[in-house]
Amino acid sequence: MSWSFQIRNGDLNWGGPGGFATVSGRQKLIQDLRNWLTEPRGTDSFHPDYGSVLDGGIGPTGTEVDYLIGNVVSEEGMMQIEAEVRRILAAYQQQQSDRLNNDIIKYSGKNTFGLDEILLQVEDVTVENYQDVVLVTVTLLTGSGNQISFTSPVASI
Fold first, then answer.
1. Cα–Cα separations (whole angstroms), residue 53 to 68, 84, 100
2. Mind listing the pLDDT tens digit of every residue in the chain (157 residues)?
3. In which domain, by residue range, is 72 found?
4. What is the model's pTM?
5. What does the DSSP assignment read for 95-132?
């Protein structure tokens, strides 16, 4: 099973053994996906496809993309937000698949994932506008067969 440092309110969370708290399993999966949603795409030169264009970033053709959020979000804007979230989920799932394949070769048929941190299937993505905030709710099926949901604000209008 893999783990990540726990992030709370944008900062590393202090308090685990050795100083920093960690997350694993479904909490790691949710944290990873929230990070992908909030990191502008193209800002990490080692991982240019990491992140989203919800708040601007670099598109797949290498050109700068205007942010999808920050103004009044139209029905078309809501559909663009959903499409971007679905793109992120597919990219994350592909990254996991690539790592699983590498792990199996490197570790003689074993891998470094826990079943609850594997994104097996996207069940649903909903985008809703509540006054001045756009919320995205994602429902996933993990590798252990557990269904998990999380809601994340992605836009303040």
1. 7, 7, 26
2. 788 888 888 888 888 667 888 889 999 999 999 999 888 888 888 888 888 888 777 767 677 766 655 556 788 888 989 999 999 999 999 999 999 999 999 999 999 999 999 999 999 999 998 877 889 999 999 999 999 999 998 865 5
3. 26-156
4. 0.86
5. HHHHHHHHHHHHTTT--S--GGGSEEEEEEEEEEEETT
Is residue 147, in this structure, part of any structural domain at all?
yes
**CATH code of the domain containing 101:** 3.10.450.40
Residues near 79 by beta carbon (within 8 Å), at least 6 away in sequence:
127
The CB density around residue 78, as the number of other CB atoms within 10 Å, is 18
How many separate domains does the chain show? 1
